[in-house]
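Researcher: Sequence of FMN dependent NADH:quinone oxidoreductase follows. Predict its structure.
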Amino acid sequence: MVERILYVCASPRAERSVSAQIADVFLAALAERKAVEIDRLNPWEYELPEVDGALLAAKYAGLDDAPLSAAQAAAWQQISTLAERFHRADTLVFSTPLWNFGIPYKLKHLIDAISHKGVLFTFDEQGLNGMLGGRRAIAIYTRGLGYGPDSQTPDQVFGLEKPFFDTWLRFVGINHVHSVVVEHTLGPAGASIRASAIEAVTLLAQNIDQQAARTIIVGRSG
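Model: Prediction complete. Tokens:
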């Protein structure tokens, strides 16, 4: 059976991106042990739908069960087509650097474009229900500095990309999440830390079907 993977790379640096390099190793290691079909979504190259007046009008018309205009229907079809790539996947893989305490704005744009009722979640009198349940996610985060509790940039204050992303994944119904956090990628120790991260994701890929969801931190001191 082929495992369908959607891979979202949040860095615009292509092959120079450390997060993308580590994700590529993970995907290659996974492909060595099972049949996979990888759908690569680059939000820097994909023409993401604008979260503008037409899209928001379509959203609120849908909330009110009102008919959509032609412009609203076209805007809604754009996000439905994009979100279908998430629904088709068995596993979601993300790689993202830390930018200004959070995720790159193109990844945030992607999340904002597809996170709507009837697209990635539903809600009723029973509450919110994510529509991507049963899938798993692997999120690879890279940080140039260290974010240990004794550092000048402690994780709970400056490393806000992972809490945000964990919340979004739970919101859309994904509770099985493997996180790989790689710190100190800049500076003299960067090469050895990248090597350790590559080893860690290779082992994760080899054993992922037998492992409970967990967070792996590479390169943290203090």
